[in-house]
């Protein structure tokens, strides 16, 4: 399988030690998850090897967990959850809102650490709810997290999240418990 062969040897060793990953068995695991996905017509998502491998690695190759995560991902990606945005909607790369979000520097993927972990710096104080509605901010956070989870290094070595509350105000506090429940459900994906 090409996905496993693209990894530097450092990550191949980490995947074996942390996830019990054996490159020879990856195609069989991916095919089993693909068969399960094809038996679930209500779930709509890509079925390429790299996409499915992402869920298998998150679940340390426990298929029931991978299936639950994939189901949760598909559900959250295709329903209107926070605000009026469906999170699975493709990004409009010419959007002024996207440009504004990127310029705030709210979610900043950083480089990797010596042990292979990928770093993400979240500057919550950089978010101004008057300029960027909460639903839009969560949509972009979803896209940033999905981008990081798509990198096999983050699934194998892990992600370090640095949350910086500098400049935070009471306007940024989310008061609706339903919004927080949805966000927690998404973070468990």
Automatic annotation (TrEMBL):
Q: Name one GO molecular function term.
A: phosphatidylinositol bisphosphate binding
GO annotations of cellular component type: membrane
User: What SUPFAM superfamilies does the entry give?
Assistant: CRAL/TRIO domain, CRAL/TRIO N-terminal domain
Which InterPro entries does the annotation name? CRAL-TRIO_dom_sf, CRAL/TRIO_N_dom_sf
* Name used for this protein in its record: Alpha tocopherol transfer protein
Q: Which organism is it from?
A: Echinococcus multilocularis
